[in-house]
Amino acid sequence: MKSGRHAKILELVKKYNIETQEELSELLLEAGYPVTQATVSRDIRQLQLTKVPIGGKQKYVALSDNGQEISKKYTRVFQEGFLSMDMAQNILVIKTISGMAMAVAAALDNMDCTEIVGSIAGDDTIMCAVRSVEDTERLMERLRKVMEGKEQEDVSGR
């Protein structure tokens, strides 16, 4: 049942611009898969679905198993959601488009930013605790390069 539901979810996110878990739940019900919100939320995590901006809105997309393709998608999510960044000592504050902070934070996690000890994402703001002021400055420079498209091939910084 679960694998069939997962296959149907992947099919639905490719076919439709699904913005919310509720929309996904309704489409699954129409397809013969009655689900709870908790099940949909768990499925989204397990399938590694993420939201990307499209025409002023957002939609769920599935990330492929190809590591390089995933990195490119995360880079695109970061670039499209990012607005600005500023530092206060070893705290990096990143402003995003409204509703995109969690997606941008997921992209940051994928970039393997070892300078970041931990981060918290709200609606349009991410706060990152960074190891040192020097690491914060290096990280900001690296993120500027990502925004300029210079690190699209390897966002991990390796």
The average pLDDT value, as a whole number, equals 87
User: How far apart are the termini?
Assistant: 40 Å
Q: Please tell me how large the radius of gyration is.
A: 17 Å
Quaternary class: single chain
* Uncertain residue ranges: 152-158
Strand order of the largest sheet: 3-4-6-5
| Count of extended strands | 6
* Overall SS class: alpha+beta
- How many helices? 6
User: What portion of the residues fall into strands of 2 or more residues?
Assistant: 15-25%
Q: What sequence of helices (H) and strands (E) makes up the elements?
A: HHHEEHEEHEEH
Question: Major beta sheet, specifics?
Answer: 4 strands, antiparallel
Topology of helices and strands:
Blueprint: H1 2-15, H2 21-30, H3 37-46, E1 49-54, E2 57-62, H4 67-81, E3 82-88, E4 91-96, H5 101-110, E5 116-121, E6 125-130, H6 133-148
Antiparallel strand pairs: 1-2, 3-4, 4-6, 5-6
Helix pairs in contact: 4-5
General description of the model:
With 158 residues, this protein is an alpha+beta fold. It is 47% helix and 23% strand. It is built from six helices and six strands. The chain has helices spanning 2-15, 21-30, 37-46, 67-81, 101-110, 133-148; strands at 49-54, 57-62, 82-88, 91-96, 116-121, 125-130. The strands form two sheets. Strands 3-4-6-5 form a four-stranded antiparallel β-sheet. Strands 1-2 form a two-stranded antiparallel ribbon. Helix 4 packs antiparallel against helix 5 (101-110). The chain is elongated, with a radius of gyration of 17 Å. The protein starts with a helix and ends in a 10-residue tail after the last helix.
